[in-house]
Amino acid sequence: MKYLFPRAITIALITFLLGSGIDYLAGLETTLGLDTLFQIRGTRPSPAEVVVVAMDETSESRLGVGQDLTRWRSFHAKLVEELHSQGVALVVFDLQFIASHPDHDPAFAAAMQKAGNVLVADCVQKLRRGVEDFYGRDECSESNQEPFVQREGGQQQLSEQLIAMRKIIPTSVLVQSALDHAPFYLTNDAENSTIREGWIFLDTLAEAPTLPVVAWLYYLQRTGALKGIAEPDAPISVWLNEKRRLCLSGLDKTPHPSPLPEGEGIFRGSLKESLNNLICLEDSRYLDYYGPPQAIRAESYSDVYDGKVTDLQGKVVFVGKSNRKYSPGKTDFFQTPFTDTRSGKMAGVEIMATQFANLLENRTIGMPCSTGLSNALFGFVVALLLTGMAGLSGILASLVFAGAYVVLSLWSFTRNGAWLPVVVPLLVQLPFSWLISLLWSRWDLLKERKRILSFVRRVFPQWMPFVSASPGQWYPEQGTAQLMSERDVCGLCLATDIEGYTAVASHHTPHQMWELLNAYYQVLGHPVSSHDGIIADVTGDAMMAVWIDLPVASQRLAACLAALEMEQAVARFNEPSIVGRLPTRIGLHEGDMALGRLDAGEGSHYRAIGDTVNTASRIQGVNKFLGTRILASAAIVASLTHVIYRPVGSFRLLGRDEPLELVEIVGIESEVSVAKQAIYKQFAHGLSAFQQGRWEDAVASFQTLLNNHGVDGPTRFYLDMALAYRHNSPLEWEGVIRLDAK
C-alpha cells in the first residue's frame, strides 16, 4: 500500500503526457471527440425566434434569377417591405452588397430605411500567403483585387510571405440606410475544413465585432433586455469595438462571470455577466449546432416574397443562399460536425443563424475546466484503480469507471453543452494505463521471484534443483518429493563437458576461471529452464540436467531443442571471449534414475543418480572420438519428426556390456539444408558397408565423401577404422565399436 499513490501518480503522469502530446499533434479531441459527441447527442430544437429565408433552387426558378447573385438585388426591397409589414424584429442579410446597382439600390435603401431594422454584412477578404491570391465569400474576392499594400515609392505589389485580412463594406447608399453593418468570416470553402467555431471579434480587423454578435445586441436592445445594463450611444458595432479595446488595454477590468444557475437565462439577471464575458474574455466560441443542414427553421425566399408565410412577427430573419438539393456543388457551403454525403454541406447563412441562436440561448460549447485537468484526473483515478485492484479486477473496475465517465460526458454535453474530453482518456490514457500496469505487475512478479530464489539459495540450497529459473514454472510435485530422501523417476538426462578445460584452467588464475565459468553456466542453463528442464548438478566443467514428469515425446523433443540451443549459445559465448574458449560436448540418454539427497558431513546435496546418468556422461565422451558436439542414444529421436539426426554407429561404451546405437543431433528440419541431408544419407551408405565388414566399399564411400564435401568428424573416424580393418580385420566382427576410454 505504501507504493500505491506514487505508482498511481507515475502511471497517470505518463499517460497524461502521452495523451497530451498526441492530442497536441493530431487534435483528436476536436476533430474526433467533439464531432462524435454531436453525432451521439443528435439534433435539438432551435429557438423559435430564429428563421432563415433561403435563397434556394425553388426561388431561383420562380423569380428567374438563376445562380447570378446580382440579379437578386431587384427583389430585396419588396422582401424587406414584406418582412416589415409582418413586424419582424430584425432582418440580417448574409450577402455582400459591394458592387453598386443604380437601378435597384435606391429602392432597396428606401425599404431598409423605412424598416429601420436591417443589418448587412461586410465582406472579409484574405490575402493568401506568398502570392497575390485574394479570396473571400461570394463576389468579395472577384471584384476587389487591389493589393493590400505596395512597395514604398513605387507601384510594385508586395509578394512576401504575408497573410493579411481586410474588411470591405457594402456600397455607401446601402450602408447609410442600414441599421448597422459588421463582418462575418468563415474559412474558405475550398479548404474543405470543418466549421466548429464562430468568431466573436476579429482581432486582425482591429477587434471588429462580428455580425451575429451585433444582431444579438440589437435584438436585446429592441426587447428591452439591455435597459439598465448597457445604453449604447453609437451604433452597436462601434460601441462593441470600443468596449473590446478598453477591455484588452486593461482600462476596463471585468471578472469572469460565474456559471448560470439551473434554469436561469439571460433575461433573469445574468445578462451583464454574459455580456462582460463576451466582450472581454474570448474572440471565438465553439458553435452548438442544432443538427444537420436545415435544422433551423427555413422558409423559401419566394414564399416570403409572395406573402405566403405570415407568422414572422417578432422573429429575427437571416437572408442568404441556402440551396436545399445541390449544396455539395455550390460555394459558400461548409462542413460541420453533422454534415455528411447524405445531408450535404451547411450554408453560411445557417451557420450565422446558429451562432446568433446560441447567443440568444446563452448556450455554447465549452469545457467546464481545462483539458489538462480533466485528463489528469481521469488518468489518476484509472491508475489508482489499477494499482489498488490487481489484475483483471483492476481492469474491470477501470472499465466501469470509464463507462460512467462516458455517460457523464454525454449527459453534460446534452444538458448544457459542457464538453468533457473523451477521445484522449478512452483511446489513449485507458489502454496505455492497462499496458503500464500489466508491465509493472510483471516486473513486481520478477522482483518477488528473484527475492524468493535468493532466500531459497541462502537458507534452503537443497531445494534449488526443483525450482525453474524461468517465471511461472514452479514445480510443486518436486517440492513435495523433496521431503523424502530419494525419488525414483523415469526421465531423460543431458550431460555436458568442456573440451580442453584443463588446458584453459592452467593458463588462468582461479578468479579468472570463476568469472568465466559463472558467465558460461548462465548461458548454458537458460536453454534448460526455457524447455522445462531441471539443472540437477554442476561440478567443475560438467553440468547435468534432467527432464521428468512430462510425456515421453515432450521430454525427448524438449531435451533435443535444449541441446541445440546450448550449442548455438556456447558458440556465441565463445566468439568474443578474451579469457578463453569453452567448446562444449553434449550427451543425452533416457531411462530410470533416482533424484536423491546425499548427506555429506553436516551438509546435504541433491543429485541425479543411476546408470542413466553415467551413460549420458559416457555418450557425451564419444563426441571426443567422432568430432561431434551432440550425441544421443537412438531411442531418444525415434519418434521425433522435426529433428534432423544421423546414425553414427553402435558402440560398447566403457563399463557397459550391451552395445548402444548412437545418433548425432544435427538441427531442426527448417534449419538443415537439403544438401546437408544428402551428405548424411551418403554417410549412412558408408556406415552400412562398414558395419557389414565390407571394408573396401566403406573406404571408397568415406573417401569420396571427404573429397567432395570436406572435413567431417564421423566420416574421418570411420575411414581410419576401415583402413585399419582392411589389412587387419577383427576375428569376430559384430559391427560394434568398443571404446576403452572415456
Layout of helices and strands:
Blueprint: H1 4-26, H2 28-41, E1 50-55, H3 57-63, H4 73-86, E2 90-93, H5 105-115, E3 118-127, E4 134-135, E5 164-168, H6 172-177, E6 180-183, E7 197-199, E8 201-202, E9 208-209, H7 211-223, H8 236-249, H9 271-280, E10 284-286, E11 298-300, H10 301-305, E12 316-321, E13 333-334, E14 346-347, H11 348-361, H12 371-388, H13 391-416, H14 423-459, H15 476-481, E15 486-498, H16 501-506, H17 510-530, E16 534-539, E17 542-547, H18 552-574, E18 584-600, E19 603-609, H19 611-626, E20 630-633, H20 634-637, E21 643-652, E22 660-668, H21 674-691, H22 695-709, H23 713-727, E23 736-738
Parallel strand pairs: 1-11, 1-12, 2-3, 2-12, 3-6, 18-20, 21-23
Antiparallel strand pairs: 3-4, 3-5, 7-10, 8-9, 13-14, 15-17, 15-18, 16-17, 18-19, 20-22, 21-22
Low-confidence stretches: 150-162, 251-269, 474-484
Radius of gyration in whole Å, from Cα?
45 Å
**Percent range of helical residues:** 40-55%
β-strand percent reads 15-25%
Number of strands: 23
Q: Describe the largest sheet.
A: 9 strands, mixed
What coarse outline follows from CA principal-axis ratios?
Answer: elongated
Quote the average pLDDT. 83
End-to-end C-alpha gap = 60 Å
Number of domains: 4
Global structural class: alpha/beta
**Helix count, per DSSP?**
23
Could you walk me through the main structural features you see in this protein, from its secondary elements to its overall organization?
By secondary structure, this protein is of the alpha/beta class. The chain has four domains: 4-19 and 368-448; 42-123 and 169-361, no CATH class; 464-670, Alpha-Beta Plaits, CATH 3.30.70; 673-742, no CATH class. Helices cover 45% and strands 17% of the residues. The protein is built from 23 helices and 23 strands. Strands 15, 16, 17, 18, 19, 20, 21, 22 and 23 form a nine-stranded mixed β-sheet that branches. Strands 1, 2, 3, 4, 5, 6, 11 and 12 form an eight-stranded mixed β-sheet that branches. A two-stranded antiparallel ribbon has the order 7-10. Helix 21 runs antiparallel to helix 22. The protein is elongated and about 140 Å long. The model is unreliable at 150-162, 251-269 and 474-484 (pLDDT under 50).
